[in-house]
Design a protein that fits this description.
Keywords: ATP-binding, DNA-binding, Nucleotide-binding, Phosphoprotein, Transcription, Transcription regulation, Two-component regulatory system. By secondary structure, the protein is of the alpha/beta class. It has helices at about 10-25, 35-45, 60-70, 85-95, 110-135, 145-160, 175-185, 205-210, 230, 245-260, 285-290, 295-300, 320-335, 345-350, 355-370, 380-385, and strands spanning about 1-5, 30-35, 50-55, 80, 100-105, 165-170, 195, 210-215, 225, 235-240, 260-265, 270, 275-280, 305-310, 340, 375. The termini are far apart.
């Protein structure tokens, strides 16, 4: 059942539109509002699949209604109803986010086609949101511990926003998985996710890598080159190990966050970018600030949302699930049947000191699968998983 609201101050037009839609399909549930203010109140209290809205109305005109709806419930398609003298305004509403407009008196075929197309779009939006709830298995976070459950809940809350996120935790804990999950569940998931390992790029090249450069900016700059911020436009940039970034590059990142603009190295031209920034570090940034190696103003810009990823030693209850996950994944990669781990082998692995965290566990699981017999036993763990 599709729920449609008609906002129109002329009673005759309301009746005609209601009659047309009601006769077109029993799946259309049509409601009416006689002015913009009443319409907004109904939209606040109900979930509509489509709103047909007149442009010229008392109390609140159609443009004001459109702007309000886009703030309240941006996913609801709006079709504007325009009189002959309102066509310029109707066209302008398209720029403000209206799905379409129809002229008075409404042409039957035009009206019904527009309504069908608008409802189809709404259904696609809903389906896409549902799909985004199901994160790709490639970046699935494995675990039922309280710490991992808290991270999953946090991601559910913040993914759909553009809030900047700072992910902290030791090496090998899966900080990049959190970044991927945030991106995939966000409204930017159709855009790029650009990853930058700040620790792997020499300090003299980091600014060029992030912001690009123009030809002649330095000796090896043979042509203009876009940076990672430009490549991430419309999507997300993941700045991994941001604690290793030079102070000079930090200053430019801060400007990019403040102004949503970047400048290529060697250029004074601003380039506007629309990028969500997710950063990660294994360092204590507050300590780095105290020792003059990290900008405090940049920290506060990045740490709108803080997500702490725990060490594997702090979530040992997740180790059996992780072993099962890795065993299945490794068997698929090797084209072999999945090898089981005995209960005693799993218990022994749970008691290990995992200084390398999940990355180390995965390597040990692969080693045991390769070197053990039909089943990974306690003796196999003692023999092959020793530190």
């Amino acid at each position: 059942m599709s729920k449609i609201l008609i906002i129109e101050d002329e009673a005759a037009i309301r009746r005609v539109l209601t009659k047309i839609l009601s006769e077109e399909s029993k799946e259309y549930q049509v409601e009416q509002a006689e002015d913009g203010l009443e319409g907004i109140n109904k939209i606040k209290d109900n979930d509509y699949d489509l709103v047909l809205c007149d442009i010229k109305m008392p109390k609140m005109d159609g443009v004001e209604v459109l702007e309000a709806v886009k703030k309240l419930k941006p996913e609801v398609p709006m079709v504007m109803i325009s009189g002959h003298g309102d066509l310029d305004t109707a066209v302008n509403t398209m720029r403000l986010g209206a799905f379409d407009y129809i002229s008075k008196p409404p042409d039957l075929n035009r009206l019904l086609n527009t309504v069908r197309n608008a409802l189809d779009k709404k259904n696609l939006v809903v389906e896409n949101k549902l799909l985004k709830k199901k994160v790709s298995k490639k970046y699935e976070m494995i675990g039922d511990s309280a710490a991992i459950s808290q991270i999953k809940e946090m991601i559910e809350k913040v993914a759909a926003t553009d809030a900047r996120v700072l992910i902290t935790g030791p090496n090998g804990t899966g900080k990049e998985l959190v970044a991927h999950w945030l991106h995939e569940k966000s409204d930017r998931s159709n855009g790029p996710l650009i990853e930058v390992n700040c620790a792997a790029i020499p300090s003299e090249l980091i600014e060029s890598e992030l912001f690009g450069h123009v030809k002649g900016a330095f000796t090896s700059a043979n042509k203009d080159r876009a940076g990672k911020f430009e490549a991430a436009n419309g999507g997300t940039i993941f700045l991994d190990e941001i604690g290793d970034m030079s102070l000079s590059a930090q200053a430019k990142v801060l400007r990019a966050l403040q102004e949503s603009r970047v400048q290529r190295v060697g250029s004074d031209k601003d380039i506007k970018v629309n990028v969500r920034v997710v950063a990660a570090t294994n360092k204590n940034l507050k300590k780095e600030i105290d020792e003059g190696r990290f900008r405090e103003d940049l920290y506060h810009r990045l740490a709108v949302i803080l997500i702490q990823v725990p060490a594997l030693n702090d979530r040992r209850e997740d180790i059996p699930l992780l072993i099962s996950h890795f065993a299945k994944k490794i068997s698929q990669e090797q084209g072999s049947s999945e090898k089981k781990f005995s209960d005693k082998a799993i218990k022994l692995l749970q008691d290990y000191d995992w200084t390398g965290n999940i990355r180390e566990l995965r390597n040990v699981v692969e080693r045991l699968i390769i070197l053990s017999g039909a089943e990974v036993s306690e003796d196999d763990v003692k023999l092959f998983a020793s530190k």
